[in-house]
Amino acid sequence: QVQVVESGGGLVQAGGSLRLSCSATGTLIGAKSMAWYRQAPGKQRELVASITNDDDANYADFVKGRFTVSRLRFKNTLYLQMNSLQPEDTGTYSCNAQFIVRPPRGTYWGQGTQVTVSS
Q: Environment class of residue 88 by beta-carbon count within 10 Å: exposed (0-12), middle (13-18) or buried (19+)?
């Protein structure tokens, strides 16, 4: 069974940086893509960034130029380097891993890690 675990969240002042990590374990199959989402209190979950196993990365407009997503080649490990953080970046950041080969075909989510940016 695939398990996804995030780490690296915390409290940071505006303008600071954090690096989030995500690991999908329980399978030797490489994920087709992995992604970071975030959800602020009272708001819907939104895509932050995603990356395929071909290193094709995509970003939400609100993080372009500030956040960088990366992935360890041949490993289901995902990172999100967040710079120039702002209070509006506060939220729970969750990672998912999408597999297209059966098993473990499907999309698996972690529990999330909290990011709080103070002004």
A: exposed
If one counts every other C-beta atom within 10 angstroms of the C-beta of residue 15, the result is 11
pLDDT 10s digits, 95-109: 999 999 888 999 999
Q: What gap in Å lies between CA 14 and CA 4, rounded to an integer? A: 28
Structure confidence at residue 103 (pLDDT):
84
Cβ count near 106 (within 10 Å): 11
Query: 32-51 pLDDT, tens per residue?
Result: 999 999 999 899 999 999 99
Residue pair 69/20 in contact by the 8 Å Cβ criterion = no
Q: Can you tell me which residue has the tokens 């940071």?
A: 12
Element (H, E) at 106: strand 106-109
